[in-house]
TrEMBL record:
Membrane topology: Lipid-anchor
Annotated compartments: Cell outer membrane
Top-level taxon of origin: Bacteria
Species this protein is from: Pandoraea faecigallinarum
Name of the protein in its database record: Outer-membrane lipoprotein LolB
Pfam families: LolB
Length: 195
């Protein structure tokens, strides 16, 4: 799942939903790479954060496609209008907002920080939605003693609470809450995956 990009997309929506009613043209479907499976997720998100000491909220829908290391995330407002498009590859990240020149850079976190003034856990979320720690740092996972399903993961200052799962096999996350308080600036993200 293109979790890294989804989180950026979620954060970007905070800025996007304030920009007005302008909309972007939806992105073309991700072209498959031979031997690599395309992951496709649709769902809803909400973000609570602080900006300049003021509490803010934003919400909407997302459409996320990932093909190996390449991801495209489309953010939609509650009425279904495309409000942001995020693209990421190993060498480049870009963010398109209505009525503005695209922002780009080598790292997704930097593009997000430049656009929004804060960064989300784009590198970790891709793994966290698969109920595992991201490579490169220590992670701890708490499991339900009866079902052995993950209920909480902690890594890099983030707490990831697994709230609901889809029925069936393999085990897939349906709802996840992420939270972090960095330097007195709380940030909370909720993702609900519809498919």
């Amino acid at each position: 799942m293109a979790a890294r990009t989804t989180v950026l997309a979620i954060a970007c929506s905070a800025a996007v939903l304030v920009t007005g009613c302008a909309s972007l043209t939806p992105p073309a479907p991700v072209e498959p790479i031979a031997g690599v499976s395309v992951e496709h997720y649709r769902g809803r998100f909400s973000v609570r954060y602080e900006q300049n000491g003021e509490a803010r909220n934003t919400y909407g829908n997302f459409d996320w496609q990932q093909n190996g290391e390449n991801a495209t995330v489309q953010l939609l407002d509650p009425l279904g209008q495309t409000q942001a498009i995020v693209r990421e590859s190993p060498r480049r990240a870009s963010l398109e907002l209505p009525g503005k020149a695209p922002l780009s850079g080598p790292r997704l976190e930097d593009v997000m920080r430049d656009a929004l003034g804060f960064a989300l856990p784009v590198d970790g979320l891709r793994y966290w939605l698969h109920m595992q720690g991201a490579p490169g740092s220590q992670a701890s996972i708490e499991r339900d003693p009866q079902t052995q399903r993950p209920i909480r993961l902690k890594q890099d200052g983030w707490t990831i609470d697994y709230q609901a799962y889809f029925d069936g096999t393999p085990l897939r996350v349906k709802r996840v809450d992420l939270s972090r308080d960095l330097d007195g600036s709380p940030l909370a993200v909720r993702l609900v995956i519809d498919e």
